[in-house]
Design a protein that fits this description.
185 residues; Pnp Oxidase, Chain A; 8-stranded antiparallel sheet; 22% helix; globular
Amino acid sequence: MGKVYEAIDDRIHAFLLAQKIFFVATAPSGSDGHVNVSPKGLSGCFAVLDPLKVAYLEYGGSGIETIAHLRDNGRIVLMFCAFDGPPKIYRLHGRGREVLWDDPQFPELMRNFPEPKHWGARSVIVVDVERVSDSCGYGVPLMDYTGDRDLLNQFWDNKDEEQRLHYLHTRNATSIDGVPVLAAD
């Protein structure tokens, strides 16, 4: 039977940081539009800011659904599963917002992420956590972690600042539902 917690305590905090992957789900308001679930990973991309606030790095990629949905209604859930050790799942429900790379808050938020280089980070997603819950995780498979993929870093390392901005403003200009997110160059 799952349990609801008042906040992220030290034990939950340690569990969240130990996971190599987590999943983010958002949805637009109303009955139209696509629900989005995205895997998130890479070492050092998640941070607990306080017992009811977390943040993660949102990398430029093939879509921009999370930001479109957060601007629409703010609803978000992060799910962390244990793929090794004792079975456990934690879900963090809350309200999120993006802090884009050109926002004055961005450099300060980036200090929460230990990796020295995050070229592809287009935003930091900050989540005000409203509900912390767990479940058993008995159905989650055991899997071995062998390392982070380096393809995302390679992709962004091969672009200069102008190319990075062009990519974000063209490939991430709208969500799959056609919602404008980043202005085109």
